[in-house]
Predict the 3D structure of the following.
Amino acid sequence: MKREELTIADIDRIIEMAWEDRTPFEAIELQFGLLEKEVIALMRAQMKASSFRMWRKRTNGRGTKHQSLSQLDKGRFKSTLQKSISGNKISKR
């Protein structure tokens, strides 16, 4: 999905997911088709400069924002009843 094709609700959800510490960029790519660099560009365009800098400082080098660097799944309980990410664009609300 191209950035021009995103609805306001999609953009809001992407920003929400990008702010979450435990949501990796790969989950955003799976659901919305945006690469990390495209998420960064979207965040830069949608946020105030100071808010963007604060977000980049928090996410830069953070292991939890990349599945390959994340240690979250190792040693962490996951119920067999819990659904895996299936590309569902409906928020958890």
Observations:
- The first helix runs from residue 8 to 19.
